[in-house]
Every structure is written in structure tokens, then in C-alpha cells.
Amino acid sequence: MESLIQAINKLQDVFAVVKVKEHSIDLPQIVVVGSQSSGKSSVLESLVGKSFLPRGTGIVTRAPLILQMVKYTNDDMKSMLDITDNKNITEWACFSHIENTVFHDFDEVREEIEKRTDVLAGENKGITDTPIVLKVYTSSYTLTFVDLPGITKLPVGNQPADIEEQIQQLIVKHVRQPNAIILAVVTANTDPATSESLKIAKQWDPEGARTIAVVTKLDIIDKGTKSDIVDLLCGKIIPVKLGIIGVVNRSQKDIDQNKTLDETLQNEKEFFRTNYPEICKMHGNKVLANTLQDILIKHIKITIPTLYKNLEDTKTKLESELKTLKTPDCEKTFVLELLNDINKSYCETVTGDRKDASDEMLMGGAKIVNVIQDNFTKKFMAVNPLYNLSDKQIENYLLNTSGIKKSSLVNHKALEIMVSKQLEYLIEPALSFVDVVREEMFNILDSIDQKLLNELQRFPELNNNVRSTLDNLLEMKLKNIKKSIKSHIKTHQKFLNTTNPNYLLQLVNSSIECSSSFINSKNTYYNNLRTGDCYSEIDKMEREIVSKMYKDILSSLGGLNDYKNEINVQVRLHKQFTRCYFEFIRNTLRDFVPNRINHKLVNFVLKKFDKKLKAEVFMPFINNSSSGGRLAEKEGVADERNQKEELLIAVNKAFKSLKEIQMQ
């Protein structure tokens, strides 16, 4: 069943060379996590049986190392001999970034890891998430690890100030994957509760279902804590379900004295037999290797269906994305179809006919309606009818328009001046709303079908031309619409209709006396309107309303005692007239302005956009011999397409490997 691990190794080889962030493949693999100086490197070297990892102070592992141990076959040996022609080699290593090169001196392997790390991560002790893939061919067993940088707290030398955060992010990127087995390296001479590796494991695997702990440095602990160590090794302290295995690796003194790994393994065996006889057969590097192999094989079997499904989904998505990124076979046909689809999607977005309507946000026509409610209506209705119109000003208007004559009950000249002045304050919010709708109409282009938008944005020149066409189309009507709306308001400023029933109703509602009187007499009013002369009846109604308002105001002031009191009555009366007429016209404009914009701008664009695209984008494209530049892709698209093509090739290779597994 070791072939299962080798099949996953092939997938690691495949995906290590492609980097497309939005298409990550969650492979079943063992991820090694530990603090600096926790003995992480020594554990891996003991498992491999060779000293090959970089050593030193600070962060030594600065790139993920995918370490693939392969129990070689006769075919592997033959392939190695074809390259080296050296029959004395019994164990060797190969890097994925160096083709047809075999390393049998493991000191050279260490040097190559250091060189490759400097290439990928730089020489300033920074880190990278680009992995180094190392295959070690051995006669022992097949096993695979992903060795990650040791957890650190403080930057050293020229390291970035956020090195701790960078390392944490890199570790989390690997351990959070559901298919990852977490190998947490813990030192025996520290409290497990403070272990950084266990903290990370618990955060991303709270139940401990995919975590195995390895306890190092058992040979340097105080003998008085032996019972505590037994509890630790028996799983009574660390809650992980895949087991806890203690190991004894080479010390720095052993390394300095060139103590072999075989000697270390023998000493380890003797150490456990002497110090922990009851549990000695459950610990040690050989037990760790066999346990990890069993765990990984079982885990691979469990995760294959999910992995297959993930690969299928990735393949489908990649094929769809590459179809969008495909270079057009016939540019003219491509441009015409794209323009037709853009117009269709734009119009459907405005009219609400999209089949993929969003449930997360407002878009298109719905957003315009929302703007009407939240922007225009609120702002429009918030204008004070008597803004900047004081009682003294009203009095002056009344007196100055009367001249040497006494002011009549309704001074129409003064009323026209005041109404015209107040209606002027409605022009700015009405015209500014035209600009708001125009902007929304332009922005709707960014809300069309995302596939079409992505395709359009591939070609900067074409994208600019489409946007320019829509912009010009909107601009074409902007001035006329504003002129039309302003003219409409100006008409109401110049010509007052004080017999309009809606205005009269405003007057009625503004006076308690009028309102109660109108309610009592409304049947008489309606009957007279049906049977008599409509205009004379309305005139009569206006006079009665004004008369009642006059009496109402007069009553509140205590009667006409003097000339000043009479002026006050006139001021209050015309103040009401102005307010009511203003509100009457505003209510009319509240519907007129949006309807005018919808009719003259929105509908106009919906009808003309298609023709404009053909005339201003497509026809110049086919008539201009140098139009090929319009289909020049933006920078980065070709690289993106190549990356996705590489990943699709990798996914297809992965499918082949998985099928080989299923046939076993």
C-alpha cells in the first residue's frame, strides 16, 4: 500500500510547480509543526536516516520542504544508474527543480536546500510559501512530510519585523486544510500547555482527530519528573487522537562528534528500554515511522473520494475560466457577439429581467428606484416651503405690489413673486438628481453578467470604447433633460393656478376651520361640481375657502383693531397661500422629475445602446485595418491563461494518478 503514498507524491510534484491562489488543492499529507530548537529537524533526519537539513541559529527552514521518502524499486535504481552509472550508490536524493541530477552526498543535499532557499526567499532570512520538493530514495520505507519554518517570536538580523506573523500565516495555510495530518513536535522539558505547535494544532483541529504529537529531548529532563513524562507519553496530558510518540535524537554534542544516525537509533532503543521499560515498544523513531506510514495510508484512503471531487470541481472551473480567456478564432464575430451580449445583459439588469438576480444587494433598475426614495424624494421633500422668506419680507411684498391701493384679500401679484422665489429652491435638487441617475446608469455596466464583464475587461481598448459609448449616450440627453425639468418648474413659477383642486385641498388641510367646514359640506360641493358650471363652482369654492381662512386667522388675532392688525392678517394668510401652493407644486414635481428622467434618459438608453455600440464600436473595428489593437489583452491576462493551462494539465495528471490508485 506504499504505492498510495507515492501516488500522492506525484500529486505534490504536480501542484508544487503551479501557483494559482484561487485553485488550491487540499492533498492528504503530514505537516510538521514545531518551535525553533524543538528538535523538528532532528526528527526528520532520524526518520530519513541521513543528516541533510540546514542547521544554525535563527530561522533555518525558510521555505516549505516537501520531503518524499521513497522505498525504491528496481526501476528506480535503473533510472538512477542511467544518470550516474554508479553502482555503489544505495541511497540518493533528487530535487524537482533540477532535472536529471542525482545527489548521493547528503552534505550536497543540504547545500542545495540552502541555495534554493536563498533563491526563493532571498538572503535576508525572509520566508516564502513556494515549496522545495526533495525525494529521498531509501531502502527503508515510503513516507512524505511537509516541513515548515520553526515558530519564532522575535526577528533576527535583517528579518522583517512581522516575521512571526508571516510564519504563522504559512503554517496556518497548511494545517487548516482538512486533509492535513498535523505532526506537532513538543519538547519534554517544557510545559505542553505553552507549546506553540500544540496551540496551533488545537486551533485548527480542536478535537485532535488529525493530530499526532512527537515528544523530543526526553534524555535531558530531570529524573524527578519521570512520572509526569510517563503520563505525557501515555496520552494523559495532550488530547490528540492519532497518538503520542517519544523520540531521542542526536544532541548538538553528538552532531559535533559526527555520531552516526544508526548509533543514535541504537542508543534511543536502549534509552527507552532502561528508562521506560513498560512502554518502550511504543516509542522511538522506528515506531514513529511505522505509525506515520499507517496513519497516512489510512488517511489517503479516506480522503480519495473528496480529493477526486475537488479535482473534478477544479477542472470544471478551470475549463470554464479558460473558455473565457480563450483567444478568439474570428475577431469580428467575437466582438459582435460580445457587444450583443453586453447590451442584452445591460438592458436586462435595468429592467429586472436577469435570471441570475442577486439576493445580496440591489442592482440595476432596483438601485435607481432606491435612489429615488433615499436620495431624491428625501432631499426634495426636505426643502422648507418658506425657506429664507420672513414675515417682514411677505409684508413688504404685499405693500409694494399694492402701491397706493389697499391690498386685496388675495394679492395675486405678491403671491406670484413669493411662489416663484420659493420654487427656485426646488430646481437644484431636481437637476442634481438627473446627475445621480446618470451616474447609476453608467455604473450599471459594472453590474452586468460577470463573465461578460471579465471578457470585456480583458481588452482595454474595447472596454474603453464600450464605456465611452455609454458615457456619450448618457451625456447626449443630460442637458436636454435638465433644460426640460427646469423649464417645467419655471412654468409653475410664472403661471399660478389658484383654482386647481389639489391646491385648494392643500388650503383646506392647512386650516382647521376650513377642514371641518369642507368635511361637513363636501357632498354639496361635489353635487354642485357635477350639475353646475365646473369653473364657476371651483371659483366659488376658492372664495369660500379663502374667506374661512381669513376669518380663522382674524379670530386668532382678536379681530381688526387697527391697520397693523390687518397687515398681520394679510401676512399670515399669504404665508399659508405660499406654503400650500409650494407643496402643491412639489407634490406634482415629485412624480414628474423621476418619470421625466425614466422616459427621456433611461428608456432612451435602453432603446439606443445597441445601435450605438454597433455604430461607434463595431463598425470602426471592422473598417479600421489597424483595429487589432482593440483586442490586445491587458497586461497579465496571457500569464493568467498560461498559469491556468498549466494547472489544468496538473489536474489532469492528478486524475491519472488517482485512477491508478483506484485500480490497485
TrEMBL record:
Gene Ontology MF terms in the entry: GTP binding; GTPase activity; microtubule binding
InterPro entries assigned: Dynamin, Dynamin_GTPase, Dynamin_GTPase_CS, Dynamin_N, Dynamin_stalk, G_DYNAMIN_dom, GED, P-loop_NTPase
SUPFAM superfamilies in alphabetical order: P-loop containing nucleoside triphosphate hydrolases
Keywords associated with the record: GTP-binding, Nucleotide-binding
Superkingdom of this protein's organism: Eukaryota
Any one cellular-component term (Gene Ontology): microtubule
Dynamin-type G domain span: 24-305
PANTHER family referenced in this protein's UniProt entry, alphabetically: DYNAMIN
The family this protein is said to belong to: Belongs to the TRAFAC class dynamin-like GTPase superfamily. Dynamin/Fzo/YdjA family.
Protein name: Dynamin-type G domain-containing protein
Organism of derivation: Macrosiphum euphorbiae (potato aphid)
